[in-house]
Structure formats: structure tokens, C-alpha cells
Specification:
Length: 379
Amino acid sequence: MNYQFIFFEEHLTSLQTKKTFAKNFAMESKKNLEREHSRLTRSFRDMAVELNNHEKSKAYFNFHQQNLTLLMDKTSTEKKLREKDPEHKIIISTLEALLDIMEELLIWMKQIFPEIFDYKGRVPIKMIESEISEIENDLNLIIGEFEKKKLDAKLMQVTRSVLDISQIISFQDLKFWRESCYKIHQDLMLLDSIDEFRIIKILMGLGINHPDLFFYAKRHISKEIEHKTTLGEKISAVCSYRKEIRVLYRETQMLQFTRKPDIRRTIKKFLREELLLLRAMEFVNHEVEEAGIMNANYKVSFSVKQLAFFVHLQMETGIIIWQRAKFAHQYIARHFSTVERDSISEKSARNAHYNHASEDIKKVIAKLSEMLALAQERY
């Protein structure tokens, strides 16, 4: 079993060092390359028959595939260097011919030996460049549809990040990007009405598992759940999302990034945790209601602004631990009244929470001082 690409390597080396050229150099070079292409296709077919062993054939062809990719990239790099000098027209055209022949051979290997071709192998720069315009065109059409349908600008940003062509490394990646961009655009064209979650489902259904998509999906779902006013509505929303994700049809079993988790699985896990939390809250609320605590209301000598500032201080110092200030507003509205007002709206509590007048601050500080003095005196 001999290494087959010595001619290509020597031809490239010759072009890198050659200073003078005969009149018919380009034509002769092309003929030689075509003859070599024919020789190589015969040789590879013969080798496949001779080896008659899947593992050995795979190792042999993958080795040559890898080296052919490296040679193509070296040739592409050399061509770019030569393009800076307009006097190198003959060399540039010959390098292009060499690249074309090597690309033809690689495509031939992929078509003739699909079972042993390494689709996870690195794709040559030239082959990526030839596909880029089509992929970028589809991506621009996708973003155009987003804009037309007035979808979230953040989703457009995430989509560009998720389908950024600089992430294409392998033949498998190239196929995935090409097919995914085309399919997304086709789906968008067929849908009259669409929302952000529908887009998320389309992307997940295609096997896209970029981290940016996961974080966007999680944030979007969390926001939608938070908008629900009652605990029952929140639980219902989570259950609805779980069902949507569970029955989501996958176009392909291929994932965008094989070493990253399937986003469907991680989103389902997130929703399960959310549901468990909400169920726990529902249980606690039920127990509290049964104990008659839920509807307890306490009259305080503070004004609404003073009360809000007092609660704010407790949150800031870690006495009260809430993830969101909204919970504090709800707590104040449900459980407190002042000497001035028998009921406090959540909106009033929210406004007071962020509006601290100096006289209110002084009143709260005075009360805190009294509490401190009392504690020091008695305890």
C-alpha cells in the first residue's frame, strides 16, 4: 500500500519554487493533472478490491482523505499569497487547476466510497468557500423573514450566532448547515403566523443544539411563565411547554454539535425542575391557607414608602431572601396595611420600593435605632 499523492505534493512544491515557465506550461500541467486523476481513481478502486476488508479500507482511504484535505488547504493558502502579485497569473491558474483536480478527486472518493468516507473529517477551505454564498443567502433570507414577521431582535441575533458559518469544520457540518438553513427558510415561507417559540421548535427539530439557543429558549420560556398571574396558570403553562417539547418532531437524529447535549433534553429537564418548584409552592400555599396564615393582614405605623424601604433593607441585608423584587411587592400588598391606607396595591408597593424619600429613610432609621436600643437594653 503506497502513498498516492506524491505527484500532487511535488507539483505544488514545483509551483512554489518555479520562476520561469514555458509557453505551454499551463496546458501541459493540466493534462498531467488529468492523467494523475485518472490514475488515482483506478488505483483507489483496485486498492478497495485488493484490501477486501472494511476496517483496512477505511483506514487507508481516511488517511488519504486527510492528506488530500491538507494538500488542498496548502494549495489554497499558496494561491491567496500569489494573488497579491498580478505577475503570478500562470502560477495562480495552475494552482487553481491543481485545486480543482484535487476537489474532483475528493468528491469522487465521497461518492464512490460513501460507507468508508470520513464525514467527520475536516472539509477543505475551497469546498467551504464554494458553499458559503448559498448558506449566507439562506441565512439572510431567514433574518429577512424574522424582520417581516416582527420577531424578537434577540432571536435574530441568536440565529446568526447559532448558524455562524465560521463553526463549519467537517463535511458533516457543511451538510448540516446547508440543509438546516434551507429547511428553516422553507418552513418560514410556509407559515402565515409564527412566534418566537415556534422558531425555537423549528431549530430544535433540526437538531440545532448551540448553547446560545438553549439560553434563549430557557429565558423565553421563563419570561412567558412569569407573565402568568396565578400559580395555577404558571403550572398550566409549564405543562403546556413540556407537552410541546415532548411531542416535537425531529427532522433528523443528527445533532449540530455531537459533543454537546440535545437541547430538547435540557429544556425538558429545566421544565421538570420548574414544575417541581411550582408544585411545591402550590402545596405550601395550600398548607398555609389551611392554617389561616395566607390571608393574615398586619397594620403598621409606617407609610407605604417607609414600609417598602424597610422591606428593601431586609432584602439588601439578606434577612429576606427572594430571587425577585416582585415577590416583595406581592407580599406587602397581601399582608400589610398602614395607618393611612387599609389596602396596598402591588403597583403602589412596587413604586414605593424604588422611590426612597429622605424623610421616609429617616423615619425607618429612627425605628431601627429604637429596635437596636431595645435589644441592647433588654437582651
